[in-house]
Amino acid sequence: MPHIRVRGMSFETLESISESLIESLADITDTPNSHFTLEYQAASYLVAGGSSPAYPFFEIVWFNRGGDVKAKIAAYIDDLVRPLIVTGQDITVMFHDTKGADYFENAEHF
Questions:
Q1: What is this structure's pTM?
Q2: What is the DSSP string of 46-67?
Q3: 10, 18, 88, 94: most buried, per Cβ within 10 A?
Q4: Which of 3.40.50.280, 2.60.40.420, 1.10.10.10, 3.30.429.10 would CATH assign to domain 7-45+52-89+97-103?
């Protein structure tokens, strides 16, 4: 834990930044990089009337590390991904804070 889900970009692009992404987030959060999981999600975006271009969307599920850390992570992801996408395209980073009471690993509560 943290678990990062990514959609709206190609697998190859995500794979090309995966090492620096995990290493940097591990550094920002002072968490071993082996605690991170990175999940690629293939997705199609639709709006009224049909398909829509995808945009990078990062969901981070974790134990809350505070607003300052969230802001640093969002800025880092934006800086890392921005050169890889179309100018003016959005990049979304969303955090889902997990409470210890809601987390089980191997059927054990933490």
A1: 0.90
A2: EETTEEE----EEEEEES---H
A3: 18
A4: 3.30.429.10
